[in-house]
Structures are given as structure tokens and as C-alpha cells.
Design the sequence.
């Protein structure tokens, strides 16, 4: 456990410092420093800072996901080519050709999980801060950037009568406020996560992508992830549930914007965007992650040195 805390120490300092900064700002604006809502807003502020910093990574994730969808036909051909071949040379050749496909489409299977992987250390750091609040408060100790007074103040803060550091499995089962608020937050957390993933599959995937093996994995994750977080939620302090629910709401709003304004090429959302722009008389712009054809990507041939480039006419009619 000490080794785990050592690894999380830099993230614990970052998380606690951001919370402290927001807490000081809200206190300066006139909110009660000891009030649970002041600390709740500080946790929400932490989410906004982390998610805003991850926007460039999110854009890369979109491109990676669309690249994975675009290579599915080539990937199926490759799997058919090596079907039934289990020898070492065939498997090695298949792996090399598969990596070449990923390089060609500018993607890899791990890029889609990158935002989640980057967030996890901050999530565990926040869990570590909130989970050790009671122990640190009793010992008169600080946690990261939070002083001993800050920790004691946070440990005593409540919303709707439920301490932010309490959870269902750790001292909260006997408090009706903790039970009700925890259950409501867990339901909000898993519902928002389910709606976000369902929205992507219903509106932002092409028909070809819906038939791919990649889609089968997505369908499994649609039900597995909410179940995992729902079961794990009974061990999360209320402050962590607030953090994760706010993160899911951010993701939901972010996905709504992407699906409406930058949908996947060939998806129902892309067709709806084309219809909206057509009604307004606007040209269709290239979608994020859409690859140009080879003819469009090739530059026009340069004119010989000293010769003037002649304009080219399109669709010249014959007399």
C-alpha cells in the first residue's frame, strides 16, 4: 500500500492543490469554508480543470476511433487471409500486416482508451485523499496541499446530512442520508455512462462499423462498464461519486456536441448534419477524421520551368 501511495503522491498533490485553490476562491466569494457545498463545488472544479486539459487527447481519441472503424474491412480481409493458419510464421506475418494497417489509418487499439487511462491516476488520487480524510483528521495531519485544518474541515463537511468522505461500506450504512445519496449518485453515474455509450452506437457509427467485431466489443462494454462502476460505487466516498458523475455528464455533453457537429462519416448523425447544412444552403465540410481520397490528396502537377500554368476547365462540353 505504501508503494501505491508513493506512485500516486504527485497526482495527490495536483488533485489536492486544485481542490484547495477552488475552495479558497469560493470562500473568497463569500461561501462558508466549512460548508459541504463549498467542497462539493471544489470537486466539480477539479473535474472541469482535468477534462478541459484532456480536450486535445479527446480529439485524438475521436480520430483513433474513426480510424479503427475505417480499417475494419481491411482487417476482415486480413483475418480471412490467415484463417486456419496457426504456425508461428503466419501469426508473425499477420501481426506485421495488422500493424501496417494501423499505421496506414493513423490509429491503434489503445488510442481509444487513452483519455480513460490518463484520468485513472487522478481518480485514484482523489479516492486516496477522501478515503484517508477521517484518519488524517484524527491524527491532525494534512494530505498533499491540504493542511491539517483543511482536512479536518473537509471531514466535518456534509451535504444533505451526508459526509463527503463517507461511503456505503465505510461507516455510512448506518446513516440514512449516506445510503440514499450514495444510491442516487451511483444510479446517476451508471445511467449517464450508459446513455453516452448508447448514443455513440445509435447515432455515430456507420452501418459497416455496426457489423464489425469492434462493435461487438463495444456492445459488451456498454453493459460491463456500468456494472463494474455500479458495484465499485458502494465502496466510493460520496465525494468520489460526485467527481465521477460530473465527469460522465461532461462526457455526455461533449459527445452530444461531437455527434451533432463532427459526426463519423457514413453515420446517421453525418447524414443528419448533411441535411441540415443542405437546408441552409451551406457546403458540406470534411468531417473530423475523414480521410481524403488518393486523387484529392495528390497535388496538381507542376508546370515546366519557364512555362505558364494553364487554367483547367472542368466538364468541357463538346460541340
Sequence:
Amino acid at each position: 500500500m505504501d508503494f501505491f501511495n508513493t506512485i500516486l503522491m504527485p497526482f495527490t498533490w495536483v488533485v489536492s492543490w486544485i481542490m484547495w485553490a477552488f475552495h479558497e476562491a469560493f470562500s473568497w466569494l463569500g461561501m462558508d469554508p466549512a460548508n459541504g457545498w463549498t467542497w462539493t463545488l471544489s470537486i466539480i472544479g477539479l473535474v472541469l480543470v482535468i477534462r478541459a486539459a484532456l480536450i486535445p487527447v479527446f480529439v485524438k481519441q475521436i480520430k483513433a476511433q474513426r480510424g479503427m472503424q475505417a480499417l475494419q474491412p481491411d482487417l476482415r480481409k486480413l483475418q480471412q487471409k490467415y484463417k486456419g493458419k496457426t504456425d508461428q510464421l503466419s501469426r508473425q506475418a499477420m501481426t506485421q500486416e495488422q500493424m501496417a494497417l494501423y499505421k496506414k489509418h493513423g490509429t491503434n487499439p489503445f488510442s481509444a482508451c487513452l483519455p480513460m487511462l490518463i484520468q485513472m491516476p487522478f481518480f485514484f488520487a482523489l479516492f486516496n485523499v477522501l478515503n484517508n480524510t477521517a484518519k488524517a483528521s484524527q491524527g491532525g495531519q494534512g494530505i498533499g496541499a491540504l493542511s491539517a485544518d483543511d482536512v479536518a474541515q473537509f471531514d466535518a463537511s456534509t451535504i444533505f446530512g451526508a459526509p463527503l468522505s463517507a461511503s456505503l461500506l465505510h461507516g455510512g450504512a448506518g446513516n440514512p442520508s449516506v445510503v440514499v445519496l450514495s444510491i442516487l449518485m451511483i444510479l446517476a453515474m451508471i445511467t449517464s455512462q450508459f446513455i453516452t455509450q448508447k448514443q455513440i452506437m445509435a447515432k455515430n457509427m456507420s452501418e459497416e462499423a455496426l457489423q464489425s467485431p469492434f462493435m461487438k466489443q463495444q456492445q459488451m462494454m456498454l453493459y460491463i462498464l456500468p456494472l463494474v462502476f455500479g458495484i465499485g460505487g458502494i465502496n466510493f466516498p460520496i465525494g468520489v461519486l460526485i467527481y465521477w458523475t460530473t465527469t460522465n455528464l461532461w462526457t455526455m455533453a461533449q459527445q452530444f456536441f461531437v455527434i451533432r457537429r463532427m459526426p463519423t462519416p457514413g453515420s446517421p448523425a453525418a447524414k443528419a448534419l448533411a441535411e441540415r447544412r443542405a437546408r441552409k444552403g451551406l457546403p458540406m465540410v470534411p468531417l473530423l477524421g475523414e480521410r481524403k481520397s488518393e486523387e484529392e490528396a495528390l497535388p496538381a502537377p507542376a508546370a515546366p520551368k519557364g512555362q505558364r500554368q494553364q487554367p483547367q476547365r472542368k466538364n468541357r462540353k463538346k460541340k
The longest strand covers residues 158-159.
